[in-house]
Amino acid sequence: MPVPKRKTSRSNTRHRRSSWKAAVPALSPCTQCKTPKPSHIACPTCGTYAKRQVLDV
Amino acid sequence: MPTPTKGARLGGSPAHERLILSNLATSLFEHGRITTTEAKAKRLRPFAERLITFAKRGDLHARRRVMTVIRDKGVVHVLFTEIGPKYTNRNGGYTRITKIGPRKGDNAPMAVIELCEPLAENVVAEAAAAAKRAAKEKAQAEAAAAAAVSAAATATAEAAAEEISDDAAAEETAAEATDADGAVEAAAEESTETAADEATDAAADDAAADEPKA
What distance in Å separates the CA atoms of residue B95 and residue B57, rounded to the nearest whole number? Predict the structure, then answer.
């Protein structure tokens, strides 16, 4: 079974890990309560989608 | 080769998938709205709507075919007596899927699938009336915009708007305004008299507006 020949250097490890970045979620204000929410999803705050009550809040 | 069903495969086997879908449909017709994962909701939508179409047909053969899927006689009765007749004037699209974001625990995207409200009889008439009203309002807005543009044209063409009190001069300015205004030229030409009246009114307005400045 093939195994790594060399130990991965600290530099390579850190260089690799430096590109692990969290993306900012694209949010837009809810039309009812103006809270930022993801698009195409019922508002988690007021529970409406397209001015229709979907969730019990 | 038969076309595979669109959407995700559910469960571990075809039998499991059939059971999942029939149980989901039973719950949907029992409760009117259920919360499930997006994948299951997307598979359930055509499945449930086909059953509602059977319910709209309403004969014994249709009922027996639905009974092979939904084993609960009470739910089938509700489907044929309440849900089916509710959608007599709706051609498909009996269910609505609304996404509600990921679930805590496994981050699975969740959705609410529900039976739509029955289509009102006067919805079509209301839509036609609304379209007519919108067209009327648009025409009014265009006329107002044309008047405003002609007023602006007279203001720019003639610096001293107070001097124009004669009808002939007003008509000349109106003609100038129509020449200057290319977008509403046709509309203004159709009603030159009203345009002239509007121009005189606009001139009077300009006079009233310029007086406080001077």
Answer: 18
pLDDT per residue as tens digits for the range B92-121: 999 999 999 999 999 999 999 999 999 887
Q: What global pTM score does this model have? A: 0.62
Give contacts of A55 with chain B, Cβ < 8 Å.
100, 112
> Which of A37, A41, A48, A57 is the best mutation test for B, with the most CBs of B within 10 A?
A41
Q: Where are the alpha helices (DSSP H) in B32-180?
A: 38-57, 60-67, 73-78, 84-86, 123-157, 167-180
Please state, in angstroms and rounded to a whole number, the distance separating the CA atoms of residues A47 and B99: 11
What is the ipTM metric for this complex? 0.81
**Distant-in-sequence contacts of A3-11, Cβ < 8 A, 24+ apart:** none
Query: Who's near A29: CB < 8 A, 6+ residues apart?
Result: A35, A36, A37
Residues ≥6 apart with Cβ < 8 Å to B113? B28, B33, B34, B36, B41, B44, B45, B48, B95, B96, B97
Residue-level length of chain B: 214
